[in-house]
Amino acid sequence: MTSELTMIDYPAVAAAQIAAITAAVRRPDVLDLPVPSCPGWTVTELLTHAGEVCVWWTHALAEGGLEPEEEVVQAMATPGADLLGWWEARSAALVEVLRTTSPEAVAWCWWRDEERAPVAEVAGWVAHELLTHRWDAENAVGTAAPVPAELGVAGIAEFALRMLPAQEASWAESTGLIRLHATDLDRTWDFRADQDGPRLLAEPGGEPAVLIAATAGELDLLLWNRLTVAEVSITGDRELALMFVNWVDFS
């Protein structure tokens, strides 16, 4: 699964997601609309956050493995009066860094113990975060496009390899095998839930306690808290499915 994450042109994906966000937020009278997938936020707040993401990762990718300095990032992460102009400048700077930095170079990251990873790996995380916020923005203005299958698979991998191992919350007593099935690809992922929480299995794990089925893109959105279990197919232990999709802390 890790090798799949390096086979995508992430600078191109990031640029496409940024262009789609820009198109969504430039529609008339949308900046004050609520963002259903980010409760409490308006489109303005979503765009401000997305711009802050661009600033942070622009610095992280350019600093050769050093964590960005908070003061420097914060100074550039304030939009001022021209929110759209600020967003376009900050997002363009990120795309430029993604396109011009060697994939083999080292950048800061939060998910490795040494807090360093190849730029290609970090670029995958950044592109997926922008994809998620692209969906947030389009969903808020009523134009949400599906997540392409290839990027859905990458998002499932990011969730399994980055988010799940980072969780410190306790897991309830419910245990069992959780299987995700991407119906458009006829592909599955198995997770074993025990007292330490769910973890991805390298090989199929046998009969699942619960089967969660949807397209790869929909599974991606489900895992990243954009869709609910009511919007996918659940067969088996529904309580275990709910625990699985709600366990990760995205705050």
TrEMBL record:
Domain of life: Bacteria
GO molecular function: metal ion binding
Coiled coil: none
InterPro entries referenced in this protein's UniProt entry, alphabetically: DinB/YfiT-like, Maleyloyr_isom, MDMPI_metal-binding
Pfam families on file: MDMPI_N
Gene Ontology cellular component terms for the protein in this record: plasma membrane
Residue ranges annotated for the Mycothiol-dependent maleylpyruvate isomerase metal-binding domain, each copy included: 14-137
NCBIfam families membership: maleylpyruvate isomerase family mycothiol-dependent enzyme
PANTHER family noted in UniProt: CONSERVED PROTEIN (PTHR40758:SF1)
Protein name listed in UniProt: Uncharacterized protein (TIGR03083 family)
Species of provenance: Crossiella cryophila
Source lineage: Bacteria, Bacillati, Actinomycetota, Actinomycetes, Pseudonocardiales
